[in-house]
């Protein structure tokens, strides 16, 4: 830890937020020339239950390999993977002083349309970039959307990230199985079939928009065992009005959200198509992120 503090500064705060990760805030403040006054976050990654040390190290290195290769205004910067403690690893990332979207929703109850639209557009910017890089996030949720002090949204949390395209071999890979946080998992992930991982992110982004606007999830899991999701599926099947969507969306935004929440993944639009839609073109994003 001494080597880490020499490089990234003194510990200002730490939080053990889950059984998966611990976060440590560091402050580098040097007054000599050139002056350095910057905050960093260490994401300390714990091994999963029954995970071998070899698999743990390979998993963290894989997460770092992807995260550190991404450079976009709406993606959090990841600088380095470092040893910490006994055979553990941590990722050094940029610090986002504005917290995360989840905390903002909890504090506000729900977000106003202009605010939610702004964040949604930034999210789609980030997702479009990921998909263009051949990467699916697989765990989009409000907790993984950080905010800078100026309101710039940055996607983080690349624990389940997946490369679906190999540009050297010009090969596309389908996915199977489910991962991520249950309320944001799309229905096809529960089926014993292959699916396009990009459509998983599109579904999750639509759910995030609904949560921002309403302050809550509409169902616990997108399965037939969930009565609320079953009602939604029946409404879509028989072309009936979905009140919780039509209460928060209208016109172009309603058609886009309906399409993003298509039960069939093939019916969901690509992130690039959403980004160039009339709805998103009309949304005024924060200037710092334009």
From TrEMBL:
InterPro entries assigned: Kinase-like_dom_sf, Prot_kinase_dom, Ser/Thr_kinase_AS
Keyword set, alphabetical order: ATP-binding, Kinase, Nucleotide-binding, Transferase
Pfam families for this protein: Pkinase (PF00069)
Molecular function terms from GO: ATP binding; protein serine/threonine kinase activity
Protein kinase domain boundaries: 1-280
Any single biological process term in GO: intracellular signal transduction
Family matches, as PANTHER family: MAP/MICROTUBULE AFFINITY-REGULATING KINASE, MATERNAL EMBRYONIC LEUCINE ZIPPER KINASE
Protein name: Kinase-like protein
């Amino acid at each position: 830890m001494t080597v880490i503090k020499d490089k990234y500064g003194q510990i200002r705060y730490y939080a053990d937020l889950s059984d998966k990760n611990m976060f440590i805030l560091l402050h580098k403040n040097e007054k000599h020339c050139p002056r350095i006054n910057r905050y960093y976050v260490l994401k300390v990654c714990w091994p999963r239950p029954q995970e071998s040390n070899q698999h743990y190290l390979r998993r963290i290195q894989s997460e770092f390999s992807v995260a550190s290769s991404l450079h976009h205004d709406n993606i959090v910067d990841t600088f380095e993977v470092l040893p910490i403690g006994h055979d553990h690893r941590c990722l050094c990332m940029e610090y986002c002083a504005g917290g995360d979207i989840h905390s903002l929703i909890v504090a506000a109850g729900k977000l106003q349309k202009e605010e939610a639209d702004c964040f949604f557009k930034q999210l789609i910017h980030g997702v479009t970039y990921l998909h263009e890089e051949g990467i699916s996030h697989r765990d989009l949720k409000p907790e993984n959307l950080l905010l800078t002090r100026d309101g710039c949204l940055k996607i983080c949390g690349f624990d389940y990230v997946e490369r679906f395209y190999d540009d050297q071999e010009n090969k596309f890979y389908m996915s199977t199985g489910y991962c991520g946080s249950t309320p944001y998992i799309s229905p096809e992930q529960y089926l014993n079939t292959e699916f396009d991982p990009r459509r998983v992110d599109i579904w999750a982004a639509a759910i995030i928009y609904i949560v921002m606007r309403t302050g809550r999830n509409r169902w616990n899991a997108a399965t037939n065992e969930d009565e609320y999701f079953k009602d939604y599926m029946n409404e879509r099947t028989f072309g009936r009005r979905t009140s919780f969507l039509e209460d928060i969306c209208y016109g172009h935004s309603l058609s886009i959200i309906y399409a993003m929440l298509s039960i069939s993944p093939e019916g969901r639009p690509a992130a690039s198509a959403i980004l160039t839609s009339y709805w998103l073109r009309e949304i005024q994003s924060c200037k710092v992120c334009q």
